[in-house]
Design brief:
This protein is of the alpha/beta class and 461 residues long. It has 11 helices and 17 strands. Strands 1, 2, 3, 4, 5, 15, 16 and 17 form an 8-stranded mixed β-sheet that branches. It has a 6-stranded parallel β-sheet with strand order 9-10-11-12-13-14. Strands 6-7-8 form a 3-stranded parallel β-sheet. It is globular and about 75 Å long.
């Protein structure tokens, strides 16, 4: 079956033009300007009415909580939110229960996704001080890379032995995706805060607890080791202006050290943790100052930062309550990331739509060698999203599960029914999301009957 999307403002590979895309089954058959000269009679026609047609977002940093933590979320519920937000593929992190530090657990997660995911999927394998042999033996045509925690984390995934770090960086040839926060600095900060405020210190002190010094020291160590061994290092969720000095500007191709930031570091500041419901914005690394937010936005525009991902990390609302050391860290964001980033393009001197597409689709595909995705090209999978600029609308917690209003999708409602972005306004709305050529979200509801997700394939380096 063929589908023609026409009268679309196509944004792809640095260009923006009025044109069309022909989908043939799972793949993009043709891309062109204007209208195609011939349209088969049995083709389904979609008039985009001037809406943006973008390659589907590839969110390279999510925590979908399965297996073991499904009281918070699941691959089914969070992939539904993903496609409702224009995210057609995701890479999930290993801190589940059990932790994905073995190929067997990675395979378990893939088997769950094969049955339940509405978006294409891939799963990182996690490093520990003692599993380097297994990491080196894994098949990286089906695993995007190794996740390395150089700071405290859930499970047994804090790698703090220098010999383990040296071996991983010297022998592993793929992408090492690093959560960089120095554990010793965090421990020192904790002791100081407890001495001054006790165990019930306010959440607003989070940026002093998970401080910029913790980020800087850990990132410096990661960069130092990566340069020593010419490793392929990707620094996750950059939150400080300080860390930008370690990065190089320019196209992603050819870089050995790359970096990611997240929408919440571009929107909020540490002051927002003082605001009403500020505890919902507690995450690791901590959100920093307004000067950091400004520097991160400029670094995206200048190509110092290569990727925007969400670090989507759902928790029950009750888990987010309490003091600094009690309230859970992490926030959901996968449904709102693309509209939020597109709204940033409306600000004077900010990112362009072309850059948003680069950071959220093109570069993620190139960084991890994702096969035939991330671009609107003939022969590529038809992972596409139509987005329109609309009248500004306030985000509410009720919007979190609004995409599962149909009776056949009720089981896809996320237990995490809140958003840190509640109260903000959006001027972009996802109209349609295509996953491998099928409509996964129709602008109102997700469509479980059209589930057509695939395990992502990676061009292992």
């Amino acid at each position: 079956m063929k589908t023609l999307i026409f009268n679309a403002c196509i944004v792809n590979e640095g260009r923006k033009f009025n044109g069309y895309v022909v989908i043939d089954d799972e793949f993009i058959h043709e891309v062109g300007e204007g209208m195609p000269s011939v349209v088969a009679e049995d083709t389904t026609k979609i008039d985009a009415e001037g809406a943006l047609l973008l390659p589907g977002v590839i969110d390279t940093h999510v925590h979908f909580r399965e297996p073991g933590l499904t009281h918070k979320a699941s691959i089914a519920t969070e992939s539904a939110a993903a496609v409702a937000g224009g995210v057609t593929s995701f890479l999930d992190m290993p801190n589940t229960a059990p932790a994905a530090t073995t190929v067997e657990v990675v395979d378990l997660k893939k088997s769950i996704a094969a049955e339940t995911s509405l978006a294409n999927y891939g799963f990182f394998i996690g490093a520990t001080n003692s599993n380097i042999d297994q990491l080196l033996a894994a098949d990286y045509t089906s695993i995007p890379g190794v996740k390395l925690f150089m700071g405290s984390s859930t499970g047994n995934m804090l790698v703090d032995r220098r010999e383990a770090l040296d071996r991983l960086f010297s022998e592993f040839k793929g992408v090492i995706a690093v959560h960089a926060e120095d554990e010793a600095t965090i421990a020192e900060n904790r002791e100081k805060i407890i001495n001054q405020y006790g165990e019930d210190a306010p959440v607003a002190m989070h940026s002093q607890f998970r401080s910029r010094e913790a980020c800087m020291r850990s990132s410096q160590l990661a960069v130092e080791i990566a340069r020593k061994y010419d490793s392929r290092l990707h620094i996750l969720h950059i939150s400080t202006a300080d860390e930008l000095s370690m990065l190089a500007s320019g196209p992603l191709e050819g870089k050995r050290i790359t970096a990611e930031t997240c929408p919440h570091y571009l929107i909020f500041t540490a002051e927002d943790l003082n605001a009403e419901r500020g505890y919902l914005r507690k995450c690791n690394p901590a959100i920093k100052e307004a000067s950091d937010r400004k520097a991160l936005a400029e670094a995206l525009a200048s190509d110092l930062i290569d990727v925007v991902a969400t670090d989507h990390a759902p928790h029950l609302f009750a888990d987010k309550q309490g003091s600094l050391f009690k309230a859970a860290s992490g926030m959901p964001g996968v449904k709102f990331s693309l509209p939020l980033m597109l709204d940033m393009t409306l600000q004077s001197g900010a990112l362009t739509v072309e850059q948003v597409v680069e950071k959220m689709a093109h570069n993620p595909a190139q960084l991890y060698g994702i096969d035939h995705r991330g671009f609107i090209r003939s022969g590529y999978y038809a992972d596409l999203v139509l987005v329109a600029q609309t009248e500004s609308k306030k985000i509410t917690d009720a919007d979190v599960n609004s995409h599962v209003g149909s009776a056949d999708a009720q089981q896809l409602a996320s237990p995490c029914d809140w958003t840190p972005y509640s109260g903000l306004h959006l001027s972009h709305r996802v109209l349609t999301t295509f996953v491998n050529g099928r409509v996964a979200f129709d602008g109102q509801y997700v469509i479980p009957a059209n589930r057509n997700a695939r395990a992502l394939q990676f061009n292992a380096k």
